[in-house]
Amino acid sequence: MIHHEQKTLFPVRLRPGDAIGIAAPSGSFDKESIQSGIDVLNDMGFRTVIPEGLYEKNGYLAGSDAHRAGLLNDLFADPGIQGIMCARGGFGSMKILSLLDYDLIRRHPKAVVGFSDISAILYALYDACGLVTFHGPVLTTLGEADLKTKESLLSALSSDKAIDIFPGKGKVIRHGRASGRVLGGNLTTLCHLVGTPFSPRFGGSILVLEDKGEQDYRIDRMLTQMRLAGCFDGVSGIVLGSFIDCGEQDRIFRIVEEIFGGEPIPIMAGFEIGHQKENMTIPIGAQAAIDSEKGSVQFAQCATLPDSNE
Asked: How far apart are CA 158 and CA 174, in angstroms?
């Protein structure tokens, strides 16, 4: 599934009145849990489209694998839908990767937003299609998100400016400068793709990692497994988001520094990316630069394209 040489596909920029379709590729949920997130999207000026069968349940999953994949494929195929937002994370995204219609998606590139378990889909869409996606809130977190998070999401989807992310409490683990495509997301989810046809390869990229509720030795084990599997060969730089309920932060930082000890690459931490109230939206698959002196992630260009009808 490695197609890194293909052309990068940028989704169309969203405008007021555009329709955002809601996808459910992972865990099950009910109407109440996503309603406040839907209200936020509506307040931003978007229309939200709830596909039939969105609230299906199959144990801890939002319906069968075929059902969840079908919903996502249908949202890409529907010309009336301009963007796609995932309802929640949990678990289940990797179960539908082989059921997605990548040829269809390549023909109809759209902005897809999510994080946590959705990291599997974000990586697969970049890997198989070259599609730039957005690591940002899901509906179950958007309703509770702070203003900065909401503004970051709206800007990423609808602004014509390139994104710069400055952490509130940034920390430099190793100084340096680097550039490359921004890839990554939830460490646990990405680690479980190792050995599959979607096994991650981050060579030449700026790797973003975040997680929640994983003890330090588990983070060490996952990073070690990915290191041994060659996932990190040729990585340009590391950006760490939040590691919530993962024990002492400095211990996590030391583990990361040890894992990447052999390479003189910049490692920056403390970014509001991941499982916390502030969750900045960043384009996955887009080119960016990091500079430990500036303490920021600066994207090279806007991650969306103007509508050809404009």
From this structure: 34
Query: What would the two tokens of residue 239 be?
Result: 């950006």
DSSP letters of 70-95? HHHHHHHH-TT--EEEES--SS-GGG
Q: Are strands 296-299 and 164-165 parallel, antiparallel or unpaired?
A: antiparallel
**pTM summary value:** 0.96
The domain at 19-158 falls in which architecture?
Answer: 3-Layer(aba) Sandwich (3.40)
Cα separation, 310 vs 203, whole angstroms: 37
DSSP string, 160-179: SSPPEE--TT-EEEE--EEE
- Please name every residue paired with 227 in a beta bridge, in sequence order, or none if there are none: none
3 state DSSP class of 237:
strand
- Which of the four pLDDT bands, split at 50, 70 and 90, describes residue 3? very low
Structural class in CATH, domain 164-299? alpha beta
Q: What residues are labeled active site?
A: 116, 210, 275
